[in-house]
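Entries read sequence, tokenised fold; example below:

***
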Amino acid sequence: MKDISRPPRQLVDALAAIGSATLASELYHKMGIRDPQIRGPRPLRLGRTAAGPALTLQCMPKREDLYNETEYEEPERQLHRHVLYPTQPGDMVVVDARGDLGSGIFGEMMLTFFAGRGGAGVVVDGCIRDSAQAAALDIGIWVRDVTPNFHAQTNIVPFAVNVPIACSNVLVIPGDIIVADDDGVVVVPVALAPKLVELASEHVEWEEFSRSRLAAGGDLRKYYPLSPEGEAEYRAWRHAQQK
């Protein structure tokens, strides 16, 4: 069974604390990644942030001569189970389900297993089922929609585990760091993550300064983005904060 390499948890937690919007901006402005967002999947329940290395599942169009099992027939041929088996605390599962709206890739029981193993969240470019029960679990879930159908009932089947996938046409390499919150889902190439934390943390800091000035009636032209005058004031504020 294929597994992934996992980055240090403190690196993942630092990215999660920064948030998807700032990460997407800094990946674009500073690191040359034009569009890191997995478009389509939305949070099943608002108010959650989940981040971790990606376990990946690739789905393909169904061809009955190769795969025609019913829901509970030959469970070990059903690869959506296999992507969950290696789960370690903090992992994210990312599924290229081809945007299909008639296949419930996971249901309550599978997601309960994932939560019980300490998984952080699931991102599906497609659907899950048992949505009310899934929303009550202590994991984050981002999906296009929900359905009563099981995973291989209609148009697609799970095809490969822990391979590079095109989730909503965004490349996800197994082990990439996924950060998901109410704004959406961002893919962070693991090799870029340490530098991204450094750059994005400074962004978060100057926005904290700007927010305080704007809330007090400060000039938007001065404080967002920082003008040269605002930059000088920010540097002095930062120096005072460090003291």
